[in-house]
Structures are given as C-alpha cells and as structure tokens.
Amino acid sequence: MARRAVLLVLALVAAVAVGGCGGGAGSGAGGSAGGLRALVERKPAERKPAPSLSGDLLGGGRFDPSSVRGKVLVVNFWASWCAPCRAEAAELERVYQETKAKGVSFLGINISDGRDAALAFERGRTTYPSIFDPAGRTGLEWDVPPSSIPATLIVDRTGKLAVVIRGAVTEASLRPIVERIAGEGTGG
Fold it and tell me: Which pTM value belongs to this model?
C-alpha cells in the first residue's frame, strides 16, 4: 500500500513538472476561453513594454526586430518534442494566414530543441519564421520556461505585451484575440 502511494505521488509530481507540454490542444485545466489553461489580457493602459527579441532564425539569417515595428506580433514558444505544440501548429498557421493582411506578424521561438528536429517539425507546418534558441534564453526573458510551453504572447502595435496564453491554442480561441488587438486604434 505504501509503495502504491509513493508511485501515485511520483506520478502526480511528474504530471505537474511536464504540465505545460503534457496534454493535447485545449486540454489544460483552468476553464479559460476556448479551453486554454491560462489567458491574461491587459488593457492598453496596463501594458508594459515587451522584452526585446533577437537571435538566429531556424531557417538561417538573423531576426530583424525592425521588421515587426508598428505591427501586432504573435510570439509562439514551441519545441518539436512537445505534443501540444504539434497539435496547435496548423491552428497558428491558419490564424497567421487570416490576419497577416491586417498588420499582424507571427514569430516562433524554438526552445530546448535540436536544429534538425526543429527544422523537420517546422517543414510543411508553418510559413512564418522561428528563432532557434536551444538554450531557452529568450523564453526566460519572456517568462516562458521550457516546462510551460506551448505559450503564445501577443505584442500590440506599440511594442507592449497585451496577451499571454499558456497552453495550446486553437484557431477559434486565438483568432478573435489577435483580431481584437490588431483592431485597437485603427477603428476596426
């Protein structure tokens, strides 16, 4: 009986430790919009500047922060070994395609991963770029440790952090949020 209790405790600890990447899309607890584990949206007056972004792109070259200045930026933290990241990839791509004409850019941040695995994961799934950050430094600067991926953060047109979503997203849960942030100050 004691051994069974120890095994149960160990299983619970393991589930909590990998909770960020432990379930499928929208499978997290918390009961927030669209099944998301955690969603925090700040009003414009309450937003703080987003951390800076820089780094080598997974497909080669360097990320140019000036390329997203004045745009809404959706930043998605992911890894090839993360099942919920795999589940949400097509959903993110659809929202990117639906909103890019509205001044929205997407950027992936691949963390705690190998380049070959990340490239294989990205191939055929996404058309927006990803920064390759195997050490996870960018994630830590954005308060997204590897244990909390997937995570999607939305930066408004003024460079301030507007939304933090912890957990896998779906097109239905993400698109209205992105469109709302994209419409701020534009009359639409």
Answer: 0.81
